[in-house]
Write a structure and sequence with these properties.
globular; three-stranded mixed beta sheet; single chain; alpha/beta
Amino acid sequence: MTGVGDDELYRQYETVNLYRRGPGAKVELNRPDRLNAWSNQFSLDLLAAIQEVTGNPEIRAVIVTGAGRAFSSGADLKEAADRPDGETLDVYRRLTERYHPIITGLRLMPKPVIAAVNGPAAGIGLSLALACDLVVAAESAFFQLAFVNIGLVPDGGSSLFVPARVGFTRAAELAMLGERLDAPTALNWGLINRVWPDEEFAAQADALLDRLASGATRSYAGTKRQLNRWLYERMDAQLEFEAQIQREMAASGDFAEGLAAFAAKRPPRFSGA
């Protein structure tokens, strides 16, 4: 799009930066020292940024990306592991009150949203990416449903978004094995839309944002409504179901072991409890 210059910082939250690029907006996840892991403050800031770009009629397309070398590594396990003794992690409340409004906000936003995955997208970070309309990635990026590695199950919509994109067989593999999926393979599987060499990634992602921001905004919104109606009409019910199951998992011995192993930087020893 002609006339679009460099990104201009539009609003700065504690853990998220919001840039304007003409009629486009860039939401930058900004906890690079923690690989953009989701803390409580991060969830609040990200929701505020999404609400801002949704409500601003001058913004016609949005891109979500990460600062530093990651898109998002998922929930901040250090924050969870550092809870005071006796304090219970209320996973259900965190999901329903903080995570779900972000996920549904992206899916229902009447504007196209791109996830520009510049590095690891794991756990809820992968859910965030897949809640967007188009997912593009740097060649060195990878994707991981890492929940099983600490005794949890996919949440944030991943139990809906992953099979919708790649089918049951590959969704079960990603969820149960918890292995990394490199960007070229993710493209081949149909999980994502485009992969570019690392040195071209930023420019290509900006060009795609510019294209959508100058396109037929109402048409994009109508397409999202069609796809949501066909694929995600039961999204709210599935998110609630995920949260209920995750509450069960968070009370398990395997999750306690997963957190302990993470804190001790050792492999977990799951017992099935």
